[in-house]
């Protein structure tokens, strides 16, 4: 006869576990975190880390100081350069103004102009020249030959073919063709240019450039009666005065 199941006594919880079978682990209650101990650094590792941090901070500080010094040096150099440029520009402006005032004063000193007159027998050539210039007549044509006069600022220097003279005046018994041949060689070389102009109401020929081997200037030739007049300046520095003088030329035909 079988024994009913209800009559089998239950196995108590504290029963000895069956050999070879692992006992079940106890469940972790709720959200409990396992107790893990932090890793501690040794004294040697801590000191080494501090040294590395100090070195890095020192390098950053030194770099910042060097960068600041470089930027300051560049600023001072740029500032000094700017100050020098401003000072130079001011000095240049002052000098330019002084030169301008001196030029204006020199021009005012030339006026009023003085009048120059050649011999009556040679057409009474007349022109106006700056009052600060001097006149030297080397040949007054009293002997019937070539009339020659020289005009120059302050005083006329010793006369020669190589001396720079502000204005040379020559009136000679010749022809335009003969006088023009004196500049034919320079025209052929291209060191002189020629152009047609008018002086005192008559046709004239003008030459500009290296009029001689030593002199660079301008020459104008034209006829008065049976004479040929040559007006010459030996330097470009006197060309403006030369052009103004040409505008004042008069004579008797």
The SS-based structural class is: alpha+beta
CATH C-level class of the largest domain: Alpha Beta
Order of helices and strands: HEEEEEHHEEEEH
Q: Indicate the radius of gyration in whole angstroms.
A: 56 Å
Largest sheet: 7 strands, antiparallel
Based on Cα principal axes, name the global outline: rod-shaped
Unreliable residue stretches: none
| Binned strand content | 15-25%
> What name does CATH use for the topology of the largest domain?
Protein Transport Mog1p, Chain A
Number of domains: 2
Write down how many β-strands occur, each being a DSSP E stretch of 2 or more residues.
Answer: 9
Continuous helix count = 4
C-alpha termini separation: 182 Å
Proportion in helices: 25-40%
Give the name of the CATH architecture of the largest domain. Answer: 3-Layer(aba) Sandwich
Average residue pLDDT: 85
* Adjacency order of strands in the biggest sheet: 3-4-5-9-8-7-6
């Amino acid at each position: 006869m079988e024994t009913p199941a209800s009559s089998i006594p239950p196995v108590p919880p504290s029963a000895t576990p069956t050999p070879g079978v692992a006992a079940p682990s106890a469940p972790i209650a709720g959200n409990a975190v396992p107790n893990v101990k932090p890793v501690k650094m040794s004294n040697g590792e801590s000191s080494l880390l501090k040294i590395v941090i100090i070195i890095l901070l020192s390098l950053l500080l030194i770099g910042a100081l060097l960068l600041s010094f470089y930027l300051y040096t560049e600023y001072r150099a740029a500032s000094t350069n700017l100050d020098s440029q401003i000072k130079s520009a001011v000095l240049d402006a002052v000098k330019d103004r002084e030169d301008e005032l001196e030029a204006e004063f020199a021009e005012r000193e030339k006026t009023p102009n003085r009048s120059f007159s050649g011999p009556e027998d040679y057409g009474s050539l007349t022109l106006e020249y700056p009052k600060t210039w001097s006149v030297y007549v080397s040949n007054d044509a009293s002997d019937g030959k070539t009339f020659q006069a020289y005009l120059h600022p302050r005083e006329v220097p010793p006369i020669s073919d190589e001396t720079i003279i502000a204005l040379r005046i020559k009136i000679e018994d010749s022809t335009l063709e003969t006088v023009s041949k004196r500049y034919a060689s320079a025209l052929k070389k291209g060191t002189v240019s020629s152009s047609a102009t008018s002086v005192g109401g008559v046709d004239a020929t003008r030459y500009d450039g290296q009029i001689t081997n030593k002199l660079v200037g301008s020459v104008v030739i034209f006829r008065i009666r049976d004479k040929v007049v040559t007006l010459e300046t030996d330097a470009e520095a006197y060309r403006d005065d030369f052009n103004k003088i040409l505008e004042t030329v008069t004579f008797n035909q």
